[in-house]
Amino acid sequence: MEAAYKGGLEARLSERQLNPLREFCEFIQQLEARAMRADQISGGDHAGAVLDDMMKAIDYEQYLYNAFDDKQAQEKWQNVLDFTGWLKEKGRGGAQGVSEEKSLLELTQMVALMSMLEGRDEAPDAVRLSTLHAAKGLEFGHVFMVGVEEGILPHKGDPDAPPESFAQRIEEERRLMYVGITRAQRSLTVTWCKQRKRVRDSTPCEPSRFIQEMQLAEGNAPLPEDAPITPQDRLANLKALLQTPKAA
Q1: Side-chain half-sphere of 172: how many Cα atoms within 13 Å?
Q2: Pairwise CA distance, residues 95 & 54, whole Å
Q3: CA of 137: how far to CAs of 55, 128, 132, 183, 184, in Å?
Q4: 33: domain CATH number?
Q5: Tens digit of pLDDT for each residue in 67-117?
Q6: pTM, whole model, 2 decimals?
Q7: d(CA 64, CA 80)
Q8: Do 85 and 189 fall into the same domain?
Q9: How large is the angle between the packed helices 60-67 and 47-58, nearest 10 degrees?
């Protein structure tokens, strides 16, 4: 949010990219402002009204019906209505254990706290699907990094970007790769596709440059070096790349 309004951003993003970004930021700021004053203004501008206006603005119901079949969309939309209805009831202070009205910010803080506490002491035997950004600070016994290919990690980006911007982006994504591999406590599996089907055509894929930098061999094939390389050495190779000082 802060970066979207920094001076000089116009020089880095095209008008086609920047205008929708700032439009979205303004939408969020307007919602935040209403949520902050919702408990101070009479006349219906309370948590329920803010929620209703937000759902109408993002047109989420129509999105569900466009993305799913009618039955699935109806079930998902009913879940949304049930949840927003529960929030409205809490906001009016009519729910059990709530003696006064709550603003939307207070409600979201309460829901966030409930989510954090729920299952805190449980360690379910299940697979967790996560983005690299969301996995920061977490650790797992076994980690599978899938789709580690050129065009995905690192992603292909803007082909018209200046060379210095390209180099900076690659460095940032190299750090993301490092985040991913260091989430693993016991084992790490890195996979990529030889080809991907897009629409009706299949296009060949190349392993990410980061795999080569880590000196990972495909399957159990021997590495070209005279001495075998340990997993710790592979990690050290990538870590060393991240610590290489940038040219002035």
Answers
A1: 9
A2: 22
A3: 32, 15, 10, 8, 11
A4: 1.10.486.10
A5: 999 999 999 999 999 988 888 877 776 544 444 566 667 777 777 777 766
A6: 0.44
A7: 11
A8: no
A9: 40
